[in-house]
Amino acid sequence: MPFISGEVKEIEIVHLGQEPGIAEMTAVETEWNGQNAYLILLHNITERKRMEEQLERSAKEWEITFDSISDMISIHDKDFKITRANKTLAETLKKDPEEIIGQTCYELFHGMKEPIQNCPHLQCLETKEPAMTEIFEPRLNAYLNITTSPILDENGEVKGSVHIVRDITEQKLAEKKLTEANVKLKEYNKLKDEFISTTSHELRTPLSIIMGAIRLVLDEIPGKIVSEQREVLVMAAENLQRLARIVDSLLSISRIESGKLGLEKINVNICQLIENTVSHYKNFAQEKEISLECEVPTQEMLIPLDPDRIQEVLINLFSNSFKFTPKGGTVKVTCWEENDGISFSVQDSGRGIAKKDMPNLFDKFTQFSRKAGPGEKGTGLGLAIVKGLVEMHGGTIEAKSKINKGTTFTVFLPFTSQYVEEELSEKADKIIEREFAGN
Asked: For the segment 162-205, what is each residue's pLDDT rounded down to a tens digit?
């Protein structure tokens, strides 16, 4: 092997019983015993070469990965200049990667002479924290999501940032369509509610006239009727009453949703209100062979509410429980005082409600999977009305149910500040009266 003094060569070295390695060989011309000679220096660089090969492979793998990512990725320095860009970015901008390197991001992406408003790279430089923004880029006719992460040096200072740009145009267009659809849906829903309200009002008067006429005939005011005629008229009256209930329910839910239903609150003994409502159902419960239980405190429990509306809540809950409770079952109402209000519950031992139906229980026109008995049909509005009336009082309603075990509806009505002030005033008067009486 010819030697050139000072030249460094890489040669393969072989050790017995070991894998071949690589060494750096340097030849230095010198004299030895008066003759020309070469001093050969060998430096084993096997491990270094392996590390270099590994780094080269890693760099290639990183390059392949960098270019295979579908998002647009670029690396920027402190001066907003792009130092690296992936294949996706170059293809999106229809440029060669070499054309991109060295350009400022605001000039390349936006055709600007300075950073855009809310520039995420600028935010990274100022905060040393990741930043994100969404923009519409007219030059690309696309909505873009830009996520930027800072690159820190060994002193923790920002020396650049990594930009990941994702095209979210399809997502934005889908969101826009969804928003437009929701607006139209609200308009249609408003028209539907107005139609229901108007139609219900228009139906109410003729229904009342027809019902009045049937009652006159049943009372034989115009003249005698035979039993067959009476049966037909009774059937017609029952169906008219059902239709009237549907109309009333439609009117109630329409007024609640439109905010046209007002409350006339007074201080009411809710225990008495519950007992009065229960008394109306005693005969009905006996006819259906259902046990009706009422457990309320004997002392007064005053709370400001609209008695007619809360009685409507109770009637709907009772009707619902009786509808789905078989013969021999039980419907039970209880009432108790909370720290900040009063609660009452209506519990039945009926068929229960399937778990899948619970989330939609209070929706309008919902007919859940509890099968009612013969002739027991509902409008699907009762529980929606109940929820609306309870919430108008600032209260809440919840339901718990198990199939073949029954259902419990619990209503909570809060004390108002007016009630609390009156209650405190009454207590203060009693204390003063007691103290003076003691003197």
From this structure: 989 899 999 999 999 999 999 998 888 777 777 777 777 777 77
Name the residue with tokens 């209880």.
334
Beta bridge partners of 143: 136
Whole-angstrom distance, CA of residue 322 vs CA of residue 309: 20
CA 86 to chain centre: 37
Which DSSP category does 5 fall into?
T
200: left (phi over 0), alpha (psi -120 to 50) or beta: alpha
CB–CB of 341/419 below 8 Å? no
Tokens of 339: 């720290």
Tally of CA atoms within 13 A in the half-sphere of 57 that contains its CB: 6
Of 3.30.565.10, 3.40.630.30, 2.60.40.3880, 3.40.50.11540, the CATH number of 266-421 is: 3.30.565.10
| Cα–Cα dist 236/230, whole Å | 10
Extended beta strands in 103-231, E state: 131-137, 142-152, 158-167
Contact 148, 120 (CB under 8 A): yes
Tokens of 16: 């017995």
Give the pTM.
0.51
The hierarchical CATH code for the domain 69-167 is 3.30.450.20
H-helix or E-strand containing 190?
helix 169-218
